Amino acid sequence: MPKLRLCNRPEFMFMEGCIFINYRRQVSAAAAGRLTDRLVQHFDHERLFMDVDGIEPGVDFVKTLDDQVARCVAFLAVIGPGWTDLKNAEGQRRLDQPNDNVRVEIESALKRDIRVIPVLVDGARMPTAEELPDSLKPLSRRNAVTLSHHRFGTEVDELARALQRALKLHPKSPPSPTLAAKDTPTPSWIDFLFSFEGRISRKAFWLSGLFITAVCLLVMAGLAAALGMDSLDQQKGVSKLRHLYTVATLPFYWPAFALYLKRLHDFGQGKGGLWPVAILSVLSEGLSLLNFETGSQVIAIILTGVFVIVGCVKGTPGPNQYGPDPLADTSRRSAT
Fold it and tell me: Considering the domain 10-167 in this protein, what is its CATH number?
């Protein structure tokens, strides 16, 4: 999750166009962190503010919250499942408490000329006016934005562009193409196939995948020829060859996983999407060694489908947290 900042710190006192992200930690902390991580691709980090920690003892926290919200031109109220019903230790609904931080922040935003946008995450629905205290009822009339799991990055990008258009917020300045070309060394083929850093395009993914598959098939064909299957007992020979195939293909998983992860990076996803594929691959090989061919083949079909889908998903335009746009790099090299 991004480092939390206070809007009233001296170095941010005169920053114009701040975006305040309001959320409940118990309900939507992960979604709010993911939202902020994505918005950082569009706005300078200093424009994004989450939480209000570090208020000194004896300070009027309601006034402090009000002052901080007042410095923002956009207010994102992140609403997750159970947002309206969450209760405190005494069993009282938190939204009904006048000193509830989330309530105080939203109240402050609603009473000012600030663009307040409800952001629905994790399948949450928009609260009705009847579910909200009187001071928050205007929130129910604000047009909400819904962020789904499967289109999270695209939907946040759309939200960021809408904020830029409506509020005249300046987008994050991209690095100079000349400097990027100068400072970013061209990776070697070893880095390309074996490194887990950076991004690759769909074309590079398919061409590299076909190359790895061809080499793997050549290795398997060489094993079959070296064993001389015609001179071996058929049943024993097939079993021996199957086990050798399994062992011989293990080194090819590294470049396959590296290419797969870099494709995930290209559309803004991290290592979380790699672990299920790695686990299924190990399970498939284990079942093959134990002669459970049907189970191994079913998993292999599933993995093939996953790789095909990942190879077809379009990457995010422009640079993201994993590196520059590989298509932009290609265009720049062609132009030069």
Answer: 3.40.50.10140
